Amino acid sequence: MLALMSNKKLVIVTIFLLCAGCIHEGTSAPSPSPRPSLQTKSDIGSTLISGQQVRVNTQANPVRLIPTKALSFVDELHGYGLAASNDELTFLQTSDGGVSWQAKSKVTNQAGPNLLSFLNTRIGWMFTGETSTRKSELRLTSDEGQTWEVIAQDLPGLEGSRGTPYFRFFDRQKGLLAVRTEKDLQLIRTQDGGLTWGVSNRIPFPSKEDGVFTFLSSTEGWFVGPSKKDKETMMLYHMTDGETWEEAGKWPSPGAPQAISFSDAQNGFLLIKKNTSGVQGQSWQWLQTKDGGKTWSQNEFPGTFQPLESKLQVSFPNSTSGWLWDARDLWGTADGGLNWHLLTH
């Protein structure tokens, strides 16, 4: 009799445990609430939305040759740069996206800015700015930088310039030098491959404070800077006629714009140094648009990303492959700037 009661208790306990397991398996844990999307809409039609955390891989293989003066990529693999060494400039080439660099030729190093613009893997131009003792020069190569020919000297419109000019050739004939003066922008254009240059009228900057600008053609460009009326507001301007800036958007300012690039009419990229006080180091943001400046996503860099603040530049030959560099380091991305890899040690 006792054995029978014990068996019944065992059966009841077993059934209870099995039912408890069924109840546990049939109940799902509540899924986490999605991160709310922060949207700031401009009355001019530009919207700022929250993005994601930018990843930066700081592990790199040590390299001996790195560009320190200029950089120009024509696609995701092929790029060209200049490295300064005493009184010489070494012209460098990469065919693996900037992981390794090979010296191709040497030219005399001048104190002024040295800039590169390559159209493809054969044809490129090198601009050297004027100094107190030397005139400006423009060189052309048609053999991937093995030899260079001086095709123009003493280019017009460079008087009173400050900072590094914007320099780019858009095809075999049309090129642009955009020169910043104290109050104006001077556009210096060529339509014969760099042999002769014409100077535009002085174009007033839409912002009193320093901003950043880039160009898609000799007449179309973008400018980002603080508002004249309110420094807490960031303004976006678009030029389509080579003469005037038109408002294209505005948002609450996250910080100071440092570098900008547009790969085409739709895809643009903007590096921002955030406004921080009492914090060691600087915080950085990466803004990206895929609809011609109507919407920009805000993406946060990790605290380990600490580039040199001077001479920061960014370049995207297409909508996914891009490079960010200062006077010391070079980073590359293959996804529009959400993941960066340090290419120099």
State the end-to-end CA separation. Answer: 83 Å
CATH class: Mainly Beta
Strand order of the largest sheet: 1-2-24-23-22-21
Oligomer, anyone?
A: single chain
Number of domains: 1
What structural class should be given to the helix and strand makeup? mainly beta
Mind telling me the C-alpha Rg? 27 Å
Architecture per CATH nomenclature, i.e. the level-2 architecture = 6 Propeller
Question: How many individual helices?
Answer: 1
Instruction: Indicate the proportion of strand residues.
Output: 35-45%
Please summarize the sheet with the most strands.
Answer: 6 strands, mixed
Order of helices and strands: HEEEEEEEEEEEEEEEEEEEEEEEEEEEE
In the CATH scheme, what's the topology name?
Answer: Neuraminidase
